[in-house]
């Protein structure tokens, strides 16, 4: 379920200028596969694998210095009241206006990472830092994080019996805007958003997610995101369980929500959604609690084409690529 938001504090960390060499904890391997020579229409295809996701300053491929939205450094987390470490030193930087995707095997820690970012009580951070728009995210409780502009769509959206979708959305919107909005006024605000995600108004009277099909729940998550207009949307497998039409609707709605000022962090196993969104994006691979590799700033269509042509398994089976696939592809 999404968390209600309130006005984000427009506080941005100064963007560091990119150094000429990658930081010590990361190195780039240019993949010597055909896509290295291929240049996309945008003339900027650059495929790279890095061990340890580099920080923005380590990327070194950007000429401009965008505002850093989220900066995760050496993040380690265990399951609460246990010493089972799930996140083992994650590094990730997201600038405003960017789409980032995390792929990887089942159980590699993707959802845990997302949940740790929004302050899920099941996990305890043992090391590292997370700065969101210049503020220490780890010092905030989950509600404060959502107020600061974070939104998370969970893999399995929760049902809220006894609370209508309409009331829930209106309460969340009021909390974000810090002002009451009348049901009529809110309905007018909501209508175009319902149309964007192709949801019928009858879903407004139903209790939040109660009895919704898997696909309807996912659309409802996007509706919440559209209503709350978060700065950074973390979408955990928003594409799972969607039929072809629903996938296209969700992709279209997401594209409609993107502005140069907001960002998306998607967790997915399938490149299809990336294909449909058709925007530039960063693709990261998570393995055993670490972001171990990344494709930097590829146009998504090229990125997915490259992934499929480089790693034969992806041609036939749209599974999450792993670091092993990158290694095979580059040999
Ligand atoms: N609350 C918890 N209690 C026990 N184990 C947990 C808990 N949360 C995560 N784990 C374990 O941590 C590992 C990572 O889980 P996580 O859900 O983050 O993986 P994932 O990469 O999102 O997997 P998938 O692709 O299947 O969704 C798994 O082995 C999981 O069983």
UniProtKB/TrEMBL annotation:
Biased composition regions of type Low complexity, renumbered to the chain = 1-10
Q: Which SUPFAM superfamilies match?
A: P-loop containing nucleoside triphosphate hydrolases
An annotated Gene Ontology molecular function: ATP hydrolysis activity
By its UniProt entry, which SMART domains does this protein fall under? AAA
Could you name the domain of life of the organism this protein comes from?
Eukaryota
User: What residue spans carry the region label Disordered?
Assistant: 1-25
Give the keywords, sorted: ATP-binding, Nucleotide-binding
Q: Which residues form the ABC transporter domain?
A: 70-313
Q: Where is the composition biased (Pro residues)?
A: 11-22
The record's listing under NCBIfam families reads: sufC
The name this protein carries in UniProt is ABC transporter domain-containing protein
Q: Which organism is it from?
A: Dioscorea zingiberensis
Please spell out the taxonomic lineage of the organism that makes this protein: Eukaryota, Viridiplantae, Streptophyta, Embryophyta, Tracheophyta
């Amino acid at each position: 379920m999404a968390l209600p938001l309130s006005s984000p504090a427009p506080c941005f960390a100064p963007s560091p200028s990119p150094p000429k060499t990658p930081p010590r904890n990361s190195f780039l391997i240019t993949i010597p596969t055909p896509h290295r020579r291929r240049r996309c229409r945008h003339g900027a295809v650059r495929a790279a694998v890095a061990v340890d996701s580099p920080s923005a300053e380590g990327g070194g491929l950007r000429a401009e210095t965008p505002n850093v939205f989220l900066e995760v450094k050496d993040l380690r987390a265990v399951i609460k009241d246990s010493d089972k470490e799930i996140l083992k030193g994650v590094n990730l930087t997201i600038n405003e206006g960017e789409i980032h995707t995390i792929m990887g095997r089942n159980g590699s820690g993707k959802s845990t990472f997302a949940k740790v970012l929004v302050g899920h009580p099941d996990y305890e951070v043992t090391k590292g830092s997370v700065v969101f728009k210049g503020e220490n995210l780890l010092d905030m409780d989950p509600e404060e994080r959502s107020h600061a502009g974070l939104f998370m769509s969970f893999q399995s959206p929760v049902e809220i019996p006894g609370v209508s979708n309409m009331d829930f959305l209106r309460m969340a919107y009021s909390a974000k805007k810090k002002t009451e909005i009348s049901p009529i006024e809110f309905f007018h605000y909501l209508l175009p958003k319902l149309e964007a995600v192709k949801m019928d108004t009858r879903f407004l009277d139903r209790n939040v997610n109660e009895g919704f099909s898997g696909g309807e729940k996912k659309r409802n998550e996007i509706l919440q995101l559209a209503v709350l207009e978060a700065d950074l949307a973390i979408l955990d497998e928003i594409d799972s369980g969607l039929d072809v039409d629903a996938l296209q609707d969700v992709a279209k709605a997401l594209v409609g929500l993107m502005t140069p000022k907001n960002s998306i962090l998607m967790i997915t196993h399938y490149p299809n959604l990336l294909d449909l969104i058709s925007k530039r994006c960063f693709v990261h691979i998570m393995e055993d609690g670490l972001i171990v590799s990344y494709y930097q700033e590829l146009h998504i269509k090229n990125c997915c084409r490259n992934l499929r042509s480089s790693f034969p398994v992806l041609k036939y089976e749209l599974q999450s690529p792993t670091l092993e696939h990158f290694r095979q592809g580059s040999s």
